[in-house]
Amino acid sequence: MSAYDLVIIGAGPGGYTGAIRAAQLGLKVALIEKEKTLGGTCLNVGCIPSKALLESSEHYAAAQHDLKNHGVEVGSVKLNLEQMMGRKDKIVKDLTGGIVFLMKKNKVDVYNGRGRLLSPTQVEVSSDTGKQVLETKNVMLATGSVVNTLPSLRFDGKTVISSTEALSLAKVPNHLIVVGGGVIGLELGSVWLRLGAKVTVLEYMDRICPIMDTQITKRLQTILGKQGMEFLFQVKVTGAKVSNSEVEITYEDLANQGQKTLSGDVVLVATGRKPYSEQLGLEELGIERDQRGFVPVNEKLQTKYPNIYAIGDLIPGPMLAHKAEEEGVAVAEIIAGHAGHVNYETVPNVVYTWPELASVGATEEQLKENAIPYKVGTFSFAPNGRAKAIGMTDGMVKILAHAQTDRLLGVHVLGPRASDMIAEAVVAMEFGGSAEDLARTFHAHPTLSEVMREAALAVDKRARQS
Ligand code: FAD
Ligand code: NAD
User: Fold this and answer.
1) From the CA of 88, how far away is ligand 1's center (Å)?
2) Ligand 1 pocket test: which of 41, 168, 331 has the largest number of ligand atoms within 8 Å of its C-beta?
3) Does a cis peptide bond (omega within 30 degrees of 0) precede residue 275?
């Protein structure tokens, strides 16, 4: 007799969300986590603390630069970094504590320790207090990811750091060098830029966020440049020399073929993350990983063993919390005999800079590459009444629709609260909607969402404002 219907290894957003859904469906569930707190990368050192600091630093920047435009004079503005970090830590504590409550409420047994597969139906949990073996009908591997390391830049936790340390610096760096102009580099670069650091981003490719739509990322690049963020593109870091309070980076200028140096006091390495499956027992069971370390799965998220599933950052696909969550839910539903399914065509992707960049579906480059005929409608936030009232008119919405059917293929928003605005496009695409559907839908006035409607009208060349 198996003690459990499902044992989940890893309590990140994929694991804990899957645990709740499985329990709701009447399964007996165990959740194993090696860290002291639940919530995984996202709650502890990812999505949540970064967004808390982005929000606080935005207030600091607004108090310094924007409030006076609204007629609000606040005198001299002082940064209390300790308070800002304390607020962030409290949010993390509240949310990770909330997961403990949710597990209790849903009668999920939580084990604190390292999980390892012994056989397709046995999982060992080891902790300081000893080892035990859980018998189970099914296993969900949800062990997530860890930061990528560069051979030329060794982390020392103080001068050469990862996103984890960049979320808890005790003082504002004078010059923060960010290696990698992707989402972490831009978000955490923005935090420290707003708090007063000089920030230089070194990116291997010729633009920021190279996998996102070029037109819209180029526009974000210009806006971030105006905020003071500096960029060096097409560079390859080859080494770092750390002395007392300084670090000198050596890099190859790929466009101009030369070695150059750059000095700063902190280097944040943000060149991607890699799946984590150390000591998980995969080799022993013959569960393969691809070249990049991801565990391949079929459309039901099964590994080579039909009762061992894998989800989230551990498997190929975008490394996003909401993608991990949907996969956790799908696995729980499949095990309970339902039709669990994830629609990978509609995974939204958000960069929480100011303005924010949010997108869903194809980029214009992808449509060209795949010879898919398309129409495009764009509309700027500049003439939008609400954007003017907020004082945030930078940005645009870009809608890509099929040339013949008008079906929505991709939506890209660069603007205030784009992260919330993209939800409308995700729903429309989930329902197979067209640009005309968006254009004919009521949008309250005055709201930022009217820009979405105007862009949808622009697909058919009938935007009302110009
Ligand atoms: P994880 O959250 O990584 O959780 C895996 C868990 O498994 C961990 O707690 C780990 O300790 C545990 N574990 C691993 N091995 C074992 C074992 N053998 N036994 C027991 N436990 C084990 N995504 C977004 O969608 N939006 C954002 O705004 C966002 N911001 C981010 C900001 C930063 C700075 C970072 C680093 C990431 C961010 N992400 C964001 C990405 C997001 O955090 C991940 O995509 C998400 O956490 C993946 O969820 P997961 O459940 O697959 O894995
Ligand atoms: P990323 O893949 O977003 O960006 C890495 C960047 O580094 C890329 O632009 C790449 O071209 C560049 N790069 C790679 N090697 C380089 C090198 N040697 N020198 C210079 N540049 C180099 O990765 P990330 O920013 O580290 O984020 C990791 C993951 O975490 C992402 O996959 C992302 O999905 C997730 N995340 C999501 C959010 C969010 O949803 N808002 C926020 C943070 C992190």
Assistant:
1) 18
2) 41
3) no
Q: Is 445 a catalytic residue?
A: yes
Does the CB atom of residue 180 touch ligand 2 within 6 A?
Answer: yes
User: How much is the average pLDDT of 348-363?
Assistant: 98
Amino acid present at 179 = V
Q: Could you tell me if the CB of 273 is within 6 A of ligand 2? A: yes
How far is the centre of ligand 2, averaged over its atoms, from the C-alpha of 166 (Å)? 14
| Percent residues over pLDDT 90 in the chain | 97
Measuring CA to CA, which residue among 407, 355, 398, 361 is closest to residue 379? 398
* Interval between CA 271 and ligand 2 midpoint (Å): 5
pLDDT for the residue numbered 257: 85
439 pLDDT above the threshold of 70:
yes
pTM value is 0.97
End-to-end CA distance of the chain: 69
pLDDT-wise least confident of 16-25, 147-156, 193-202, 400-409: 147-156
